[in-house]
From TrEMBL:
This is Endonuclease, Uma2 family (Restriction endonuclease fold). It comes from Methylomagnum ishizawai. Keywords: Endonuclease, Hydrolase, Nuclease. The lineage of its organism: Bacteria, Pseudomonadati, Pseudomonadota, Gammaproteobacteria, Methylococcales. Pfam families: Uma2. GO terms for molecular function: endonuclease activity. Residues 11-156 form the Putative restriction endonuclease domain.
């Protein structure tokens, strides 16, 4: 019996489909973008944009749909990821080899296991300081912080009705109140 060949990051550029990522040595097609996903992704990007604009301490490089290499057989494409400018002073380019300080995944139907389980364990293993999991359908945001080698919940919110949509300070961006109603597409 022939052993299954695991794909590597080097296999990604030659792959005919653009929306792919490398999970456990397997090239996986990313889900098609849905309006709910795009709306939440744009909302979060808008809300954290003041940190993107700031230079030096407190400033961030924040990118959407960015591929990050965590090893030879692991290169997921994150919905949003950020690097503190004080740690990474020059603008990152290409497939990232630098572990992010923050990752945000927006759950896609049919890909819940990857977003909630696989990425959680992968990012925890690599010490990514903050991991957000956001569900457009459930209107939830859970923020984890890496402490002593494992994740702990530092913020959790479920917005079931319009009065639940609040402004909140969510680590690592607690320097700014984020409008969760705006993030989840509620009329202002």
């Amino acid at each position: 019996m022939e052993a299954k060949r695991l794909n590597t990051v080097d296999d990604l550029p030659g792959y005919p489909e653009e929306r792919v990522e490398l999970i456990n040595g397997e090239i996986v097609q990313r889900p098609m973008a849905r309006s709910e996903h795009a709306l939440v992704q744009a909302g979060i990007s808008d809300e954290v944009s003041p940190f993107r604009r700031k230079d030096g301490p407190g400033g961030w490089w924040i990118m959407t749909e960015i591929s990050v290499r965590y090893g030879e057989h692991q290169c997921p494409s994150h919905d949003l990821a950020g690097w503190r400018k004080e740690r990474v002073p020059n603008r990152p380019i290409g497939i990232m080899d630098i572990i992010p300080d923050w990752v945000c995944e927006i759950i896609s139907p049919g890909h819940e296991r990857k977003d909630v389980f696989h990425n959680f364990l992968l990012l925890q293993r690599h010490g990514v300081a903050y991991y957000w999991v956001v569900s457009p359908e459930d209107k939830t945001l859970i923020a984890y912080e890496w402490v002593e080698g494992k994740y702990r919940v530092v913020f959790a919110m479920e917005c079931g009705s319009p009065e639940d949509f609040i402004k909140a300070r969510v680590p690592p961006f607690e320097g700014l109140e984020m409008d969760l109603g705006y993030i989840f597409g509620q009329p202002g």
